[in-house]
Amino acid sequence: MNTDVQAYHNALTPEDRAICDTLYAIISKALPDAENKVWHAHPVWFIEGNPIVGYDKLKYSVRLLFWSGQSFDEEGLQPEGKFKAAEVRYTEEGQINTKDLQRWLKKSKTIQWDYKNIVKRKGRLERLG
To answer: How many angstroms separate the CA atoms of 91 and 76, rounded?
Structure first.
């Protein structure tokens, strides 16, 4: 875990840290070649500069966000925002369904929208692959 992500985790309550530690371990194992850094104040994984998955502490939960998650066609992920992102929220570590998360992470490698170039394309997303 890099120092910025470690600092993010260290600032959390024990309950929220348990959620984030579990998410970090599962995501890092599933995406070993992805770049991981704190981006816009929370941990995010990137494949070739494109944001794939990240999590952040909200007021009452920890949100796990998949930038292209609406295209996964998966129950358990809720649409987020006006683009293709989808999320799930956790209030305790025991709510994390490892099998679901692993399946979503597998899809995140192959189902991607090009967020890296969204500004260059003036807000228009294109599907990669």
So the answer is: 15
